[in-house]
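Troubleshooting entry. Yesterday's outputs looked truncated, so today I'm pasting the complete records for two proteins to confirm everything comes through intact. If either block looks cut off, that's the bug. Protein one:
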Amino acid sequence: MAGPLSGLRIIEFTGLGPGPFCGMMLADHGAEVICVDRLGAFPFPGGVVNRSKKSIALNMKSPAGVAIARDLCQSADGAIEGFRPGVMERIGLGPDVLLKDNPKLVFGRMTGWGQTGPLAQAAGHDINYIALSGALHTCGRRDGPPTPPVNYLGDFGGGGMMLAFGMVCALMAVKNGAAGQVVDCAMTDGSATLTALVWSMLGAGMWNDERGSNLIDTGSHFYDVYETKDGKWVSIGSIEPQFYALLCEKAGLNDQDFGNQDDRSQWPAQKEKLAAIFKIKTRDEWCRLMEGTDVCFAPVLSMEEAPSHPHNVARDTFITIDGVVQPAPAPRYSETISDKPSSAPAIGGDGAALLKELGRNDAAIDQLRTDGVIA
């Protein structure tokens, strides 16, 4: 794969969610990512997070399977895993072993709670990690329950993307002469980092620690979503005074009801009146009136609608690989041209080729199959 990370080899010990997403991020930008899958594993539905990768399926309970995994890591720049603390050590693939084999290796560890701490060994999911970090508390409407934002904040934003960032940082350190090291990426830590702006506003006395009562958490009438006449939705983010003035002009808002933008005591009543106004027109009618202006407006598109919006089409924000529509790699570069992602590999489909790279001949590979070490 061509891309800014071309030439790097990453071994991904396949897990769920954030680990594969981290691997996808690295592969999207040119790294060779080799998934070490379990024998008999089923591919993740749709294959998006495994695009552009290679796969070898190993029996990790066999010494021969562990030996192959060690050989792969000796040939690599980095490795990532997403198991509970201690699992990799128990199977003989902990960082103490792999960094001794390859002192320049960057070993990325993806967990919910982190490698240390009272909860390190507890099970959990995205919703739990962002609950503990305080991020979930900020999501939702006033007087309503916290609303889980799918798995965007924990698994992917605070987890997989944060691990990809950490891997690139540590790989840059190795390039500059440092030793390999372990990257301890916890979704609780990462999702806490994503709340930096809210902590800044809270510290400045500009944020009320009550959900749905602030400038950008649906508390204000000028930063929210509104239902339209046809049962669809639009988004408004008219924070700055000049943008708010344009919203008032385009929506026909009178000064008596909407003249004071920053009086928080009026926000609930203003929100109710604005909701009634947006129901007068269809979503398309509001788009014709506001889209492309400085109102800070956009229609709320479904996943089926988003790929065909003219802006997304113009930027190739979505691509189709083997009939599967999916987001294109991001960000883009002015000089480096990256290859278009390829479809996800078959589980174990690259095993023979990778083993030959490691010096195994055909007879040895056949014996590994017979012994149930590889797929």
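Protein two, checking that the full record survives here as well:
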Amino acid sequence: MPRNVSTLKKRASGILVKLQKAYPTASVELNHHTPLELLIATILSAQCTDARVNLVTKELFKKYRTARDYADAIPKELEQDIRSTGFYHAKAKNIIACCKSLVEKHKGKVPDTMKELTQLAGVGRKTANVVLSNAFGKTEGIVVDTHVKRLAFRLGLTKETDPEKVELDLMELIPKEEWKTIDDLLIWHGRRTCAARGPKCGECPVADLCPSASDFL
């Protein structure tokens, strides 16, 4: 059955309004001061909580301040520095390769286009969207992490499971000027109320708009 886009747009609009009221200060929760710091933190956040990443980067960002610092890092040493974020072998390898590209191709600066970012090691569309919207104020898409993917499905805004297809469905329903907003709101809601297991539907501000709420009440 084809999507009823008009109906879904109305639902999405209502969800946006209610979540904005519930989480007026929603924003990216990875601590950073520069585009490079946000890029590194986002790479580290794969399969890891933002809280854990923030603990690690508190010291990491003192030790490695430039792309050159990461590019010249001793792999085993960097692995130990980020070990608690999980998958540290792959993450260290990607960070070093990514930063070598930054040094060699971008004068040590983080590029501000989707095409250039996704050509960097360890940087997919999700990571690029995080960096573009939060470091450069550029909105080219919607960040679909595990929370956004789960909530978009539960809220009936998509039937897709592939993150890029979920992103396309959400982009069709949400005005472009609200793409970053819906990112932050869904992530906050997923962390605070609509957990993967045991969602707090009785406390949910959008339960009346959620076709899945009755499954958990």
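Both blocks look complete. Sanity check on protein two: The two ends are 27 Å apart (CA to CA).
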